[in-house]
Write a structure and sequence with these properties.
76% of the residues lie in helices and 0% in strands. The chain has 156 residues and is mostly helical. InterPro entries: DPS_DNA-bd, DPS_DNA-bd_CS, Ferritin-like, Ferritin-like_SF, Ferritin_DPS_dom.
Length: 156
């Protein structure tokens, strides 16, 4: 591959990509949790939660691709294994099948964690004038903040 010359020095590109790897791992872990909960939710809110979780994991499936492609744009290999995602993610896996309300609480925390991970990387990207990464991160933050709000509203 030829040398990357996009106005961001190599050290900054690598630092941003490492942060984006953590965002990718958080997003993929949240995707898996959401898909798992979609399959396994039960109770009086079954239909509503089943459909909502499907909307969420479908959106996350597109998001992980966008984040991985941004990492590749910066010239760094994107992680793609469960082992690597587990190592990088701030979101811990859930054992068993929680009850529906707990699923909502777990996913709320997961969406909030992705926002916090995005904020950490955003600082690094902004310092390097990496508008491409800040654009990806800003978009992700908006989606996760809104989703967390909607999930919290279900528990009022």
């Amino acid at each position: 591959m030829t040398k990357i010359d996009i106005g961001i020095n190599e050290e900054s590109r690598i630092q941003i990509a490492e942060g984006l790897k953590r965002v990718l791992a958080d997003s993929y872990t949240l995707y898996l949790q959401t898909h798992n909960f979609h399959w396994n939710v039960t109770g009086p809110q079954f239909r509503e939660l089943h459909l909502m979780f499907e909307e969420h994991y479908t959106e996350l499936a597109t998001a992980v691709d966008d984040i991985a492609e941004r990492i590749r744009t910066l010239g760094v290999a994107a992680p793609g294994t469960y082992k690597e995602f587990a190592r990088l993610s701030s979101i811990k896996e859930v054992d068993g099948v929680p009850e529906a309300g707990e699923m909502v609480d777990i996913l709320t925390k997961g969406h909030e964690q992705v926002v916090k991970s995005c904020r950490e990387v955003m600082k690094i990207a902004a310092e390097a004038d990496d508008e491409g990464s800040t654009d990806v991160l800003t978009g992700r933050m908006s989606v996760h903040e809104k989703t967390a709000w909607m999930l919290r509203a279900m528990r009022q």
